Amino acid sequence: MSRDPMVEQEWRMMHRLLRLFRLERNGRLQHWPIGFVFALIARRRQYIDELMSLDAERRRRGAAADRGLDEAARALAREIGDALPPAEARADQLRSDVKALRGEGTNSGMKGFSSGRVLGRG
């Protein structure tokens, strides 16, 4: 029995998304130019939108998801879940880097006034 072309297209889209999330989880994007990273994020968003449209159309037509599509969906869900903690850690690191650049790091002396100006160092 041959596979429904729409199910096949949805399966391929899930695997494309899986690869993009895996790149992020493995930390490979950290050393790439920021413009390229933003392009990949935009592509990922486009793939998600396309996947949602494909899924809605498949369901509207009444085509059932086969075992391969279910497995791909579970693998994608796992990869997204695995990519979230490193992404949150990276965001926290960037947040602390920005604070340090602004001089909002840890206290290094006595501060006074509402401006937080340093009054003395210990």
Description:
Helix content is 70%, strand content 6%. With 122 residues, the chain is mainly alpha-helical. The chain has one domain (1-87). A two-stranded antiparallel sheet has the order 1-2. Strand 1 (110-112) and strand 2 form a beta hairpin. It is elongated, with a radius of gyration of 23 Å.
Features:
single chain, 122 residues, mainly alpha, two-stranded antiparallel sheet, 3 helices, 2 strands, 70% helix, elongated
Quick take:
With 122 residues, this protein is mainly alpha-helical. It is built from 3 helices and 2 strands; from the N terminus they run αααββ. It is elongated, with a radius of gyration of 23 Å.
The total count of strands amounts to 2
**Low-pLDDT residue intervals, each spanning 5 or more residues:** none
Give the structural class.
mainly alpha
- Number of separate structural domains: 1
Order of helices and strands: HHHEE
Shape: elongated
How does the SSE layout of this entry go?
Layout: H1 5-25, H2 34-61, H3 67-102, E1 110-112, E2 117-120
Helix pairs in contact: 1-2, 1-3
